[in-house]
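Sample pair:
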Amino acid sequence: MYCLEQPGLVWNGLFPVPAGMTQECPRSASYRQEVREGLTRVEQYRLTGWQPLALMEPLKRAGYVLLEDELRGRNNYSVFLGRSVPAELFYTAVQEGKDTVITLSGK
């Protein structure tokens, strides 16, 4: 998968992918190009049910803090996280059918 530097680990080695999640890469051609050019990093995780906060606690334990809620909606959740300001990581969760797809992106 083009977007995973370390398969089986979240955000290039912070912690193992939690049980029940599968890793995938966005299908977007623009994401693929940006990752290949080193302009951005992106990782994606899929799990069953609506669980938009599934990676928040492990990320907090890894030292990331919530810097700004961007959007909380019925079928989406987006926030900026970081270990310092400005935010280093964009976390977004969207509902796709019965699944939650969480995307982490940043530099």
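Residues 14 and 62 are 6 Å apart (CA to CA).
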